Amino acid sequence: MLSLARYFFYFRGCSGNRVVQQTPHRLAGGEMLISRLAAYTLAAFFFIATGVLFATGAALIVPGSPLDAVWHLYEYRRVQFMPFRWALGPVFLVLSLITGVTAVGCVRRRRWGLWFAIGIFVDNGLGYVYQLATGNFVQGAIGLVISALLVFAVLELMARGGFD
Q1: Where in the chain are the domains?
Q2: Which residues pair with 15 in a beta bridge?
Q3: Confidence of residue 161 (pLDDT cuts 50, 70, 90)
Q4: Would you say 164 and 111 are in contact if contact means Cβ atoms under 8 Å apart?
């Protein structure tokens, strides 16, 4: 938690009457390895999400294609999405582009990639708040807790440094 506080309070310390800006520390060998492993794990998650979102968007736009295999993940979603396929298909394709860009940002260990990841996880958390509001208490509560933990994990990763 100390490193998270270090991220949010970048300006600290006094030298006379002026504030001294402390430079972020560079990570030692073991911490750098953990930082890289976390970034690559996050990127792998977003690459998989990119593939699933692209396949879902394409399956909505072109039903009956081999990409219909994506419906085996959530068979009941097909019934919900198909009536709105012309509106939802392009939305899923744009979301796949956003998650792909986020994955590239995480692989390259760029700070904007982590901000995109935080935005995606917060948006996902808002979806679980909607689940809670519509009566799906177990799924909504578990998803909201996981989304919050992922946001805090990414913030902690940012606080440790190693991202430009």
Answers
A1: 30-160
A2: 18
A3: confident
A4: yes
pTM above threshold 0.90: no
Looking at residue 64, the DSSP 8-state letter turns out to be T
| Tokens read off for 113 | 């990639």
> How far is 92 from 81, CA to CA, in rounded Å?
11
For 43-81, write each residue's pLDDT tens digit.
999 999 999 999 999 999 999 889 888 898 888 889 989
Angle at alpha carbon of residue 36, lines to 31 and 42, rounded to 5°: 125
DSSP H helix total and E strand total for the chain: 6, 2
Residue 84 DSSP code? G
How confident is the prediction for the chain on average, in pLDDT? Answer: 84
106-110 contacts: CB < 8 A, separation 24 or more?
Answer: 106/39, 106/40, 106/42, 106/43, 106/46, 107/39, 107/40, 107/43, 109/35, 109/36, 109/39, 109/162, 109/163, 109/164, 110/163, 110/164
